[in-house]
Write a structure and sequence with these properties.
Layout (H helix, E strand, L loop, with lengths): L1 E5 L2 H5 L7 E3 L4 E5 L6 H14 L5 E7 L9 E7 L3 H21 L3 H24 L8 H7 L4 H16 L9 H4 L2 H21 L1
Parallel strand pairs: 1-3
Antiparallel strand pairs: 1-5, 2-3, 4-5
Helix pairs in contact: 3-4, 3-8, 4-5, 4-6, 4-8, 5-6, 6-8
């Protein structure tokens, strides 16, 4: 679930948007706040919202839309609830399907990358279940150890973590589109399936 905090001077001054908290129905909570309100006051309002209405929410991270905090006009606070785990798993499954499709059309670097994404999202779903927050890392070995995966899966994750870099950026001689072969994609997909299968037994 996303909580979006908008601080737009024109909208507030022109009273086009009242200062209020609302649920928009699409898993986004929006708070409209005067740009003159102190940031501490804004955080206090969010804490009250959490305590009074959404006790299961936990802040995972804060993203600042403006690179300069002194001219900040809006914030986005990302929250995760228990049901969000299913979204991560569904996307992991879709990434795996896309990986297999790319394998079929011989786009091996993309098949490998999507296999890595499948494993990453599956592990993050389990991490969210265990710790009630998102761990924003791409190191699958570290993730696998945090969720206490078996050693053989951690070794699979070691291979997939290398794929994350190598499938995205050229090395000294070749771009990923030329570097990855069929056997690489098949191996990545096989490992991703093992990770996803194991995660499902824990959720």
């Amino acid at each position: 679930m996303m909580l979006q905090v908008l601080r737009d001077p024109k909208l507030v001054e022109n009273r086009k948007i009242p200062e209020l908290t609302q649920y928009t129905g699409n898993r986004t909570l929006t708070i409209y706040s005067s740009p003159t309100s102190p940031f501490v006051k804004l955080l206090r309002r969010i804490r009250q919202l959490k305590e009074n209405h959404l006790p299961d929410l936990r802040i995972a991270f804060i993203w600042f839309r403006s690179p300069n905090i002194r001219i900040l006009n809006s914030y986005q606070f990302i929250f995760f609830m228990k049901e969000d785990i299913s979204l991560w798993l569904r996307q992991a499954e879709d990434d795996l399907k896309a990986a297999e499709k790319n394998l079929g059309i011989e786009v091996y670097y993309m098949a490998s990358f999507l296999a890595q994404q499948c494993a990453e999202k599956a592990l993050k779903a389990l991490y969210i279940k265990k710790f009630k927050e998102l761990l924003r890392v791409h190191d699958l070995v570290y993730l696998s150890k945090k969720v206490e995966a078996p050693d053989n899966l951690s070794e699979d994750c070691r291979f997939l973590s290398k794929v994350y870099i190598e499938s995205r950026y050229p090395d000294e001689q070749y771009p990923p589109s030329e570097l990855f072969k069929k056997k690489d994609a098949e191996k990545a997909i096989s490992f991703a399936k093992e990770v996803l299968r194991w995660v499902k037994t824990k959720i």
